[in-house]
User: What shape does this take?
Amino acid sequence: MDSSSTRPAPPADETSGLDAGPTTPEGAARIRRMVDAEFAVVWRFLRGLGVAQGSADDAAQHVFLIAAKRIDAITVGSERAFLFATARGVAANVRRAQQRNREVLDDSMLAIQRDGHADPEQAMASKQARALLDRFLAELAEDVRAVFVLFELEGMTMAAIAETLDLPPGTVASRLRRAREEFHAAAKRLQAARGGAR
Amino acid sequence: MRDPRRLLGGDASDFERELLRSWDAEQPSAAARAKVLAAMGIGAGAATAAAVKVGAAAAGGSLAPKAAAATLGGFAAAKWAALAVGVAVVGATAGYVRHEAHVHETRSVMSAPASVAAPPPPSIAPSIPLATAETAPVETPVAAPVVAVAEDAPRARVVEARAKAVPAPHPSALGEQVSALDSARRALAAGDAPAAVGALDDYAVRFPDGALVEEAEALRVQALLAAGDRAAATRAGDRFLAAHPNSPHAARVRALLASP
Assistant: This one.
């Protein structure tokens, strides 16, 4: 990759004032390809970063609209890096909004409460598991969380994560180690709590 | 860099696996992606915006029909895509495109001029929660002339073929495709994997050449795994990867197959 490339880290708040987007068919075709190839993974990344299900579509849309505005500044080959950097900014904003509106926060607690009354013999409903996973993810620092989501949940390679998040490989590895330690600890705690609730 | 084994494939307790596997149901709806394209004036559902912008950027003329055709080629995930087919060109220089959340609302937008005056929101944050389906339309900032052009190789043939004949796929057929996949996804999210597989079977029978076939087949792998039928999931996954090695869903299918 060209080292003089525009390393995208568009703070989500600062992009709204930009005036021009792609002025060429090439730019439009590029953004189109980005949507086709990356929409689902960006959407899930946002979910992994704590964007509630009901907000994920809109958050993903914002990410791609920002990319559309900046398409001419995005270096070929670093499209995914741009999208993920943007997604992190957008997710941070959404999380703040969700904290302000606590009712959005979160499907998870409701799900836990509902499923808490489920038949104790029944295997834990996937919804409840998902809610518990959310609780664990919410405890992680954002930078650690991003690595955990991409490696453990999305199945990306460490090298791809390093490139996508613009991190040295060693940093990816250390964040993953930290995330795993916290995951094991959280799982013990959550499992105990779940057992106690039954 | 040598990757460690993923927790799902290695040292996770049963409970931890349960947590990690709950992620499998995460998937955007097909309509969400179509909405993005439409909001940008590209492809599905945004014939007005696309045509306007093509007109503005390319001085009208020959690109316009191509843009309309591109919306056809781009309906990959669109409940509302078909609604856009054949929509008339409206002249305007749009810096903003009105983005609506509802399908039927979109229809009315497409018949209106695409120029909408509203300043960009001061920041991204406040506008996101507003942009839900239940709220008023949101003015979404969009890059100025976005031009819809069919460059994706797989789509080119479709575009070419359809540019001549123009008959749009029947709107209800597209809607049905999206609905079929949505019901599979809902079943999966609800933990009813067999129902999800059933919905995907239904999709495969009804839409053997459907626009969402890759998505459907990737989902099938996930549903079969969730149903505990690893052998069938492996077969479906192998088939998928052989047929679509470069699909955006391929990485996910590989990860699914690698999970224990």
Remarks:
- Confidence is low (pLDDT under 50) at residues 1-9, 11-20, 108-123 of chain A.
- The longest helix of chain A spans residues 169-197.
- Chain A touches chain B through 84 residues (CB under 8 Å).
- The two ends of chain A are 54 Å apart (CA to CA).
